[in-house]
Structures are given as C-alpha cells and as structure tokens.
Amino acid sequence: MTRIPMEVLHSVPTTLLYSLEAIEADLVQWDRILKLQCRNGSISDSPSATAAAYLNTNDEKCLEYLTYIVKRFQDCAPFLYPVDTYERCWMIDTIQRLGIDHHFHKEIHNTLDFLYRMLRKDGLAWGSDASVTDLDDTCMGLRLLRLHGYPISSDMLEYFRDDEGNFLCLKGETHKGISDFFSLYRFSQIAFPGENILKHAKKLAEQHLMKNIKGHQAFDKWAIKKALHQEVEWALRNQWMKCLPRLEAQEYIRNYGENDVWIGNTIYRMYNINNPKYLELAKLEHNKLHSMHTEEANSILLWWNSYGFDDPLITQLNPKEIHLSICAALCEPKFSTARITYTKWNCIESMLKYMFESHHSIEELKLFSHAINEWKPSLVQVLPTQLKRVFMGTYDTMNGLAIEGKDVQGIDVFPYLHDLRKKQVQQYLMFREVKDKKQFKNFEDYVHQVKRGIAVAIRLVPAMFLMGDVAPDKVLKLLDQKSTILDYLDTYIALMNLVTEERVAISLYMKEQNYSVQEAKAFLEEKIDETFANLTQEYLKPNNHISHFHRRLIFEHGRIFRFFLNRSSNDPIFDGIEKIYKQV
Questions:
Q1: Burial classification of residue 58, based on how many CB atoms lie within 10 Å of its CB (0-12 exposed, 13-18 middle, 19 or more buried)
Q2: Is the pLDDT of residue 1 over 80?
Q3: Cα angle, residue 359 at apex, residues 355 and 362 outer, rounded to 5°
Q4: I want to staple 450 with a disulfide (CB 3.0 to 4.6 A). Which of 28, 123, 411, 494 is the partner?
C-alpha cells in the first residue's frame, strides 16, 4: 500500500481507479473519487470499483451503471465494460491478418469511422467512455486508420514518452509489455516522411522485442496466447516493407489462437477477437484462392511455352515465381485477370530488359526497336530466332490485352499501350548505348539512367486496365513516368538496384563524396528508407485521381521487388511462398 501514490489516485484518472475496491475504504476520499467518474457513471469502467464507490457514497450515477451491467449480463458481470474501442481494433486487425478482410469492407469502414470519432489528442482508450488512454490501443488504432486512408498524426505518441524519451503504455507503469511494444513496432513501419518519432519508436520497439525473443520472455501481460513468441519473431524477420500480405496470412493462420484467453481481474474470452469461425473461414478462403491461383498458373505456363520462352537461350526467368508474388500481394478473386496480365507483362519486360542489356549486336536491337515502333512482325524476320520469339510474344500479348482493356475501359487502349511500349524500348536502347560507352557524368546521372530502364509504367499499367476501375484520360496521363507515385517507385527500385547490382554507382558516389564503401552503402540505405516513406504516403493518403486499387498495385510492386531482392537460399519464407499453391 505504501507504493500507491494516494494523491495521484485522487487527482487524475489513472489505472489505479480500475482496482479501487482493493484499497482500504478508510484511505479513500470518496468525494474526490467521484470527480473522476466516467461519463457512463462508472469508476474507470470497472463494475467492481464502481460497486465499491457506490457502497461508500450511494451515488446515483454509480447505481445506474451497475443496474445497466446487471441487466446486460444478467447473472454475471465482466471485470471491465465497455471495451468497445479495444475490441473493435483487435477484431479488424485479426480479420486483416487472417486474410479475410475483403469480405467485410463495409463493416470495417463503419467500424473505423467509429474509431476515428473516438480518437483524442492523447490517443485511444480501451472504451468509448474510458478516461485513460494507452499506447497499445493508440498504436493499433492509428495503424489501422492510416492503412485505410484516414488523416492521423503520429505526434500524439509524445503523450506516451517519459522524460528520457522512452515509451510507456500507461503513465507510471513499471513493466514494459510485449503486446504494446509489438503494436508500436507495427505502427512505426508505416511512417510518413519527417515522422522522426516513429523512426525513434521503431528502434526502441525493435530492441525491446528482440531482447525478449532472445531471452524467451515473449509473454503478454494482457493475454495468454497460443504463439505470441512466433508472431513477434516472424514480424521482426519480415518487415512490412518487404512482406507480402498473403504470406503474412499464411503465417497467422498457423499462429492464430482461436481459443486464446485474456487477463484482467479474471480470465476471460473475447469472441469477437478469438473465434474458431474466423479460423475456419480463413482456411476455406485459402483453399478457394489456391484453386483459382493454380488455374491462373496453368494458363500462364501454356502461354509461356507457346512462344518458346522456356528456351534457356532466351531467358532463365521463371513465370511461376512472378505469378506467386502477385498472388501473395493481390490475392482477391476479382483481380484474377489483372494477376495474369501482371505476370505476362512482367515476364515480357524482364526478357526485353535482359535482351537489350546482353544481346551482342546493337544494330539488331535497333531493328527490333524499329519493328516495335512500326508494330510490324515482318520487320523482325531477319533477326535471330530468340529476338523473333520475344517480339511475337510482345506483339500478340499486347494486341490481346488491348481487346480486353477496351471491354473494361470502354475505350481503345492500344494507342496508350503502344506509346508506352515504344518509349520504354527506346529507353532500353539508350541505356545500353550509354552504358557501353560508360558515359556517366556523375552519380545522379547514373541514378537517372537506371530509373529510365526500370520500366515501372509498362509493367503495371496493363494490369491496371483490368482491375475493374475505369481510368479516365486524365488518369491515364497520371499513370505514366511523370506520376508522383510512379516516380517514387522508380527511385525506390533504382536505389535498391544500386546497392545490390550497380557497383559502378557505388564507386562514382565514393569518388564524389570521398566516402568509404560502408559510408556509401549507409547513405544509399537511408535514401531507400526515405523513398519508401514517400511511396507509403502516396499510397495511403487519399487521392482523387488515382484509385486505391491502382495505388495498391503500384505499392505492392515495390514490396515484391524488395521481397525478392532480400531472397536467400536459407530463408524459410521463400519456401513458404510455394504454399500459396497448396491447400491447408
């Protein structure tokens, strides 16, 4: 009892009020306690604390709250009520992590509207009438709201920092938990440019979680969970910027505790968060998608083999790998045609890029480019077999896409696609000529040249035509190389290429800045993180021109690239991607 700050108990709302019934009645100044009463008449939403207050004050508001609880729950009472904010946050998060959220768009939107209304300058509390906010609910709520395009600020996290800059779930607490820092860590990964508090939070949360994982101390103070250790460990290994959603769903299906229990004054269940029906639906959904994705893969392989692309002299590319990646990023049934188009067009683009980088004859590449400009198969008949196959695959696939695109968009999309095609082939040719002559003025010029060869627009726009959203002419103009979000994606991929493949760029930068290899790479890694923050903001902020689905495809393409860039033979997650084609 000597450790309880009695003046604080009577002065401001804290979680001490939640256990008021445990404090000797003679030590409590009940008239002051009533001044801290919640709007619903309770003391900190606690029936037991409210009962203690009523027994010592006969307060009518306390009685009204207790009467409501008895009528609502009949022969029992929860230890805390309401928990409507907390329950809604974790319910949405659970549904999203299990990969079944696309069935509940309307319900999720309505629930997020409620959470946004409950958001205060000092964060979110566990219930709509609660007086005390906490880091766990606040980070979970802010993360969900930002992911769905609501305008929120990370500045409110300052409320949960102590004088030394550390984060606390509740002011005055003496023990850091796992759940609250896990929520902080997950929120920190969707930082926008300039949000230094989230950059700082990510570092602290990561350190705290890793320490507890290594010490086998990943135990939650709020719940008894089936596999919290595995959840946290997997999230630390697979950061949001390089994690594909369907892979996360597969992992969470394995770790989800449908029978988890929660800890308060009692052990209790929360059926809107932990429910066997959720898991059943998630498994059914996975198996349904498995069948659809397998059919898509079979049709892609038929297309691939029909043009002889399985010839190793043409490419070592594996179309199944590209299809797996887009299935893991954009899994919903309504995007089936878009996934097939994305796979085909990224295969073609990768072959073209490789061909312009490696084919020995510049003159033959110029003739190939001329044939693309004129769109005449007859012009490639004098070229080697490999080049003819690539041209015909490009020619037939784009003509077929133009027909499909017209059916969805209601306009002839061929002129737009052909214009993109001509421009990108010209970029490949120019980059090859510049690279052969080694005519790079400086580091910035090298980056610019690399960006021109990345071909983001032509890799993505064909699939966008088939995603269901009609793209007006003004939107088509935005979805080219001048689009802000595509420019950030270009830069993001270019910078990652420089770190892993373009050693010349590193040398140029070292020479210009008089940097060591380590300093140059550190600079590039920082630029990559900054660019990803810009890309994240462009994706998540509301946009009246480019639809959410189109922005999502652009963003997921960046995550797909980062995912495979970090690929290593001994990383089990790359074995896991094959399970997209397997039932559970």
A1: exposed
A2: no
A3: 110
A4: 494
CB count in 10 Å sphere of residue 582: 11
Paired tokens of 345: 């067009």
Tokens of 112: 């997020």
**What is the reported pTM?**
0.92
pLDDT, residue 569, reads 41
Report residue 280 CA to chain centroid gap.
Answer: 24
**pLDDT per position as a tens digit, 471-505:** 766 666 666 556 889 889 999 998 888 777 656 66
Question: Given the structure tokens 């549904």, which residue do they identify?
Answer: 95
Q: How many CB atoms lie within 10 A of CB 444?
A: 12
- Tell me the pLDDT tens digit for each residue of 158-180: 999 998 889 999 877 777 889 99
Cα 440 to Cα 446: distance, rounded to the nearest angstrom: 6
Q: In 3-state terms, what secondary structure has residue 249?
A: helix
Place of tokens 């409507």: 84
Sign of torsion over alpha carbons 476, 478, 482, 486: negative
Region 220-240 average pLDDT: 92
Q: Which two tokens stand for residue 67?
A: 């009467």
- Backbone φ and ψ for 438, nearest 5 degrees, come out as 55, 45
Rounded Cα distance between 46 and 43, Å, is: 6
SS3 for 333-375, per residue?
A: HHHHHHHHHHHHHHHHHHHHHHHHHHCCCHHHHHHHHHHHHHC
Share of the chain above pLDDT 90, in %: 66
Question: DSSP string covering 1-38, please?
Answer: -TTS-HHHHHHS--GGGGGGGGS-GGG--HHHHHTT--
* CA-based R_g, the chain, Å: 28
Instruction: Enumerate the β-bridge partners of residue 116.
Output: none
- The burial class, CB within 10 Å (0-12 / 13-18 / 19+), for 566 is middle
